[in-house]
């Protein structure tokens, strides 16, 4: 039951375009006994059907910039190979720490962006 709830929450967040994989990694890290490498691998498999569903909906709604998407796909695949090889150079505990630092950086950037936007409205 716990896995179904985690999947539904992550899928909803992914469909909204807000990083469902990040939510999935966080929830699996908190509520499962899996190590960080296994959690991240599970996230990648989760990403395939949720992405296909989101792609279908966005194609249907004509909300895709294909030129930009192709460039992002190619560079993203290269980055995925580099990131995968790099992740296995870290032990489980360090990988968790680096992921946590990554999340803090994203949160900091989002807070900075909101404050900047708020100040510009004044």
Features:
mainly alpha; globular; 5 helices; 122 residues
Short description, anyone?
The chain is an all-alpha fold and 122 residues long. The chain has one domain.
**Cα end-to-end separation:** 47 Å
Number of separate strands: 0
Regions with little confidence, pLDDT below 50 for 5+ residues: none
Rg (C-alpha, Å)? 16 Å
- Summarize the main sheet: none
Number of domains: 1
Structural class estimated from helices and strands: mainly alpha
Give the helix tally. 5
Q: Which range best describes the helical content: under 10%, 10-25%, 25-40%, 40-55%, 55-70% or over 70%?
A: over 70%
The quaternary structure here is single chain
Beta-strand percent range = under 5%
Order of helices and strands: HHHHH
Shape: globular
- Tell me, rounded to a whole number, the average pLDDT: 89
Your description of this structure?
By secondary structure, this protein is an all-alpha fold. It has one domain (2-121). The protein contains 5 helices and no strands. It has helices at 2-15, 20-31, 36-60, 66-87, 92-121. The protein starts with a helix and ends with a helix. The model has no long low-confidence stretch (mean pLDDT 89).
């Amino acid at each position: 039951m716990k896995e179904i709830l985690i999947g539904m929450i992550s899928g909803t967040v992914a469909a909204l375009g807000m990083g469902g994989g990040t939510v999935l990694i966080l929830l699996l890290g908190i509520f499962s006994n899996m190590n960080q490498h296994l959690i991240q691998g599970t996230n990648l498999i989760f990403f395939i059907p949720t992405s296909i569903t989101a792609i279908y909906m966005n194609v249907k709604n004509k909300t895709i910039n294909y030129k930009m998407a192709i460039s992002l796909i190619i560079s993203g695949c290269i980055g995925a190979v580099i990131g995968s090889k790099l992740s296995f150079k870290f032990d489980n505990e360090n990988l968790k720490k680096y992921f946590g630092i990554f999340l803090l950086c994203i949160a900091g950037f989002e807070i900075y962006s909101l404050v900047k936007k708020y100040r510009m409205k004044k």
